[in-house]
Fold this sequence. Notes:
Elements: H1 7-19, H2 22-29, H3 33-47, E1 52-53, E2 60-61, H4 63-91, E3 97-102, H5 107-120, E4 126-131, H6 134-141, E5 147-150, E6 160-168, E7 170-174, H7 189-192, E8 197-200, E9 219-222, H8 225-233, E10 239-242, H9 243-252, E11 256-257, E12 270-277, H10 284-295
Parallel strand pairs: 3-4, 3-5, 8-9
Antiparallel strand pairs: 1-2, 5-12, 6-12, 7-10, 7-11
Amino acid sequence: MLDAVSLDQLRTFIAAADEGSFSAAGRKLRRAQSVVSHTLANLEGQLGVRLFDRTGRYPRLTEAGAALLIQARTVVSGMDGFKSKARAMAEGLEPELSVVVDVMYPMSSLTDAVGAFRKAFPHTPLRLYVEALGAVMQPVIEQTCRIGISGSMPVIPDLMEAEKLLDVPMVTVAAPSHPLASRDGLIQPRELKEHVQLVLTDRTALTDGTTFGVFSPQTWRLADLGAKHAFLRAGFGWGHMPLAMVQADLDAGALVRLRLAAFEVRTPPIAMFAVYRKDTPPGPAGRWFLERLMESR
Length: 297
């Protein structure tokens, strides 16, 4: 009986456990609740193990179900990896490489990798987008881009694989004319609330209800990092920036580094990850491009 256990049954089991109900699992899988219930009952019969306790309003994993769920995820993930690798081998070299890059990623590293890619794959067109927050993840999820370079959105969806690339040093800055620039020592959170903070905004709904390093209720939200840079230089507010992007301003005195008590000893760096869907991993050109980025860290 165990040899008859199918991947479809395991996927249904995982969906029911993740969604918390058979009806929600049915919606996720686009199946009727009765089909989900029947599939899981058959699976339990084949295994000889009760996976869910159905006595309450919602089904709950039994102790055995929780243990087997871990194995089910491993089996399904392994098969997805097997199929995706086979698909990549069958496809051969990608007809083009589409990449969406976090706006915080250091441009010098990206430029070096793109220049090397152009020489190594002269007949493979490169489509490159620069976005922030969820707008990096969204096109990869929707499969309009094969690879994403994400950092300003720390949560990686389960359907994605992530590989660490590098850490981007960050700094908190303001113009020398800004009131915070004249503060000696550490700046306390209560002081930050009195001034406008310039922050990047997400053009998607993936980060709704989530904030990253926001300390002031007074915020100007910008979708463009270049505009944020210009507004900081103009003294419109204070904010966090990639160190490489503002180093020349700091050296020239056009911007001043702020020392926040909440971030002492330094503003935390942003970890950058290469992300891609588990079912559509990078092909030969994409893998070469990622390895080139990793060499630059």
